[in-house]
Amino acid sequence: MIIGVMGDSHSRCEYIDMAMEHLKNVDLIIHTGDNNSDLHYITNRYGIEAIGVKGNCDTNGDVELIKEIQGKRFFICHGHQYNIKSNLNTIFYKGKEVNADIVIFGHSHIPCYVKEEEMILLNPGSVSEPRGGSQRSIVVMELEEDIKIKFLEID
To answer: Is the pTM of this model over 0.90?
Structure first.
């Protein structure tokens, strides 16, 4: 299974469209929030299933999701409620608490990949408004026996 991960799109459809050029063949899109209404845009325009969470700039939606995909347990949140801009300790322990294999979050607009105690912490960065010297980015994740993560910069 191939999953596209993006977030912090902030209703900038031109950047979503640029990202989707790289994600045409994915089976699922996971969106980390800000703006979770962009899930509808992706589903309606591209016909790809999209799931996601409410960010600090959103007014509705799930704050957190726990989802089993291909035998892996995903914990998905925006990240602001776990102070991810300071450090990853709180979100790491939340991931442990819910027995996650993969924790996906956004909020900082900075790409991040950490593997700690066999758990992956993943932030795709921002598809529209990168920060910290990063570029607009998304992730392509291949779920097989091993999990393969590939960051892509969006020009």
So the answer is: yes
